[in-house]
């Protein structure tokens, strides 16, 4: 096992990795921007290194500074978390060139399946259905021609990233001309790669994803699936595991996810995202070659520590779990607590948290870097914490989540908590009738 690792991230995921590493006796180094000097990860890590000013491009995406921090502190491996450098194969390759282990898949696997374009090609070769779409588009003229062939509306997506960044829904030629450059710039800003692909945009579908873990030698297991259909602007708000899909359809999707990961000898934690239409047809969207924000719900129903598994696999200790070892129990729900105002189109609400009290009690978990007096910087994602519950049934989990939300108090910035309380009471949500347009179609008057 590693003696020391560097965490190339911030916020709750950096804290999440620190906690498991500490339990394993592994020393931690966190990098931070000037805006995060007083963050909990910096305060709790064994060492910390400032890698630049607040802008992500100058700090958390600054590869030379991050590698220098690892070499300077003697870190043997880098955990990228999610976002930032987590799905950048060039960064993973540079780590390897400098004798540093990248805690994640190989650069080759990332290029093959992690890019949206590469993933589509492998899915086609594996007989896994995909939404009509393109490879990487060279420019707006090629995009216009592709959109004419596919048919509007279409979705522009960053080939190198996820999390809803670099995604634009386009309904006309005029919108496409304006949006293409914007999507490229957003992709470059968040992922360091302006490459854009296009897919047919489906108006009504469920977002279901398969959690996998692989050893890099062809052994891949799944740890169930998650439903992540409740979103705003293509970014997830509420996730749950398992989904409420019929058992036979769930198994088909799980098998497809494992098959795709095996195709590239996948190593570490990964997620294969699918969409499911109203008729029960499923289509592969993309693979996220990293740990997900919502990994917690899968941990809750499996009893596994995904970060521990990541570290063990990256350290060469292998994956000793077989599919038959995975027993999923109960139901788990996660609400992402964002510093945003849902009443004002989810406008970010950076600023000082005057006071915070998170819920507790049986079956309640909180992953958060927020504390009383913490100043939320305006430079990054608005996520300040995740509230996760677990219970025997979905109905019981919903009741527990509502209780936990009502018990949680954050004074200062607006948050998404009041919206989640309303969703827990929504009759469509209670019966599992959710699609990605849920907020628009089922929460009218609540926003």
Automatic annotation (TrEMBL):
<dbReference type="GO" id="GO:0004075">
    <property type="term" value="F:biotin carboxylase activity"/>
</dbReference>
<dbReference type="GO" id="GO:0006633">
    <property type="term" value="P:fatty acid biosynthetic process"/>
</dbReference>
<keyword id="KW-0276">Fatty acid metabolism</keyword>
<keyword id="KW-0092">Biotin</keyword>
<comment type="function">
    <text>This protein is a component of the acetyl coenzyme A carboxylase complex; first, biotin carboxylase catalyzes the carboxylation of the carrier protein and then the transcarboxylase transfers the carboxyl group to form malonyl-CoA.</text>
</comment>
<dbReference type="InterPro" id="IPR005482">
    <property type="entry name" value="Biotin_COase_C"/>
</dbReference>
<keyword id="KW-0479">Metal-binding</keyword>
<comment type="pathway">
    <text>Lipid metabolism; malonyl-CoA biosynthesis; malonyl-CoA from acetyl-CoA: step 1/1.</text>
</comment>
<dbReference type="InterPro" id="IPR011054">
    <property type="entry name" value="Rudment_hybrid_motif"/>
</dbReference>
<dbReference type="InterPro" id="IPR005481">
    <property type="entry name" value="BC-like_N"/>
</dbReference>
<feature type="domain" description="Biotin carboxylation">
    <location>
        <begin position="1"/>
        <end position="444"/>
    </location>
</feature>
<keyword id="KW-0443">Lipid metabolism</keyword>
<dbReference type="Pfam" id="PF02786">
    <property type="entry name" value="CPSase_L_D2"/>
</dbReference>
<keyword id="KW-0460">Magnesium</keyword>
<keyword id="KW-0547">Nucleotide-binding</keyword>
<dbReference type="InterPro" id="IPR016185">
    <property type="entry name" value="PreATP-grasp_dom_sf"/>
</dbReference>
<comment type="subunit">
    <text>Acetyl-CoA carboxylase is a heterohexamer of biotin carboxyl carrier protein, biotin carboxylase and the two subunits of carboxyl transferase in a 2:2 complex.</text>
</comment>
<dbReference type="InterPro" id="IPR051602">
    <property type="entry name" value="ACC_Biotin_Carboxylase"/>
</dbReference>
<dbReference type="InterPro" id="IPR004549">
    <property type="entry name" value="Acetyl_CoA_COase_biotin_COase"/>
</dbReference>
<keyword id="KW-0444">Lipid biosynthesis</keyword>
<feature type="domain" description="ATP-grasp">
    <location>
        <begin position="120"/>
        <end position="315"/>
    </location>
</feature>
<dbReference type="Pfam" id="PF00289">
    <property type="entry name" value="Biotin_carb_N"/>
</dbReference>
<keyword id="KW-0067">ATP-binding</keyword>
<keyword id="KW-0275">Fatty acid biosynthesis</keyword>
<dbReference type="Pfam" id="PF02785">
    <property type="entry name" value="Biotin_carb_C"/>
</dbReference>
<dbReference type="GO" id="GO:0005524">
    <property type="term" value="F:ATP binding"/>
</dbReference>
<dbReference type="InterPro" id="IPR011764">
    <property type="entry name" value="Biotin_carboxylation_dom"/>
</dbReference>
<dbReference type="InterPro" id="IPR005479">
    <property type="entry name" value="CPAse_ATP-bd"/>
</dbReference>
<protein>
    <recommendedName>
        <fullName>Biotin carboxylase</fullName>
        <ecNumber>6.3.4.14</ecNumber>
    </recommendedName>
</protein>
<dbReference type="InterPro" id="IPR011761">
    <property type="entry name" value="ATP-grasp"/>
</dbReference>
<keyword id="KW-0436">Ligase</keyword>
<dbReference type="GO" id="GO:0046872">
    <property type="term" value="F:metal ion binding"/>
</dbReference>
